[in-house]
Amino acid sequence: MSYLCKVHTNKVSHSGIIESIAEGCVKVRILQTSACAACKIAGHCNASESKEKIVEVFTDRFAGYSIGQEVVVCASRDVANKALLLGFGVPFLVLVGVLVLVLRVTGDEGVAALSGILALIPYYFVLYLFRSRIREQLSFYIE
Length: 143
Known about the structure:
The chain is of the alpha+beta class. The protein has helices at residues 77-106, 109-118, 120-129, 131-137, and strands at residues 5-7, 11-22, 25-33, 50-58, 70-76, 141-142. The protein has 4 helices and 6 strands; from the N terminus they run E-E-E-E-E-H-H-H-H-E.
């Protein structure tokens, strides 16, 4: 089984194996690796890691695939950037913004830290509510 991740100028692609096929959804197992997982001494280092992930690809052409088939799953660079923004950028800004605001108002670092963390709960709840709309915008495709 060969796993491969390539970053092109306009897309990110991972090779993987089809795990399951349901109407409209193909689940592909990919190996997500950290930047240093390919290092020669990665086996002796705690910083390197690789994880198997299941990626859901929503497609109307699911009949042309079979379980165990090797495929390449791709996402555009814009999709990857939007996902990073929603998953890391906006929560970071919410956390820091609330932290600074509460610290200025109360002067209590503990309350500010707790408020910053608690402010993420509504953010992730809103993401959960809009998950189907986000899924449409942040979709993978099989090459």
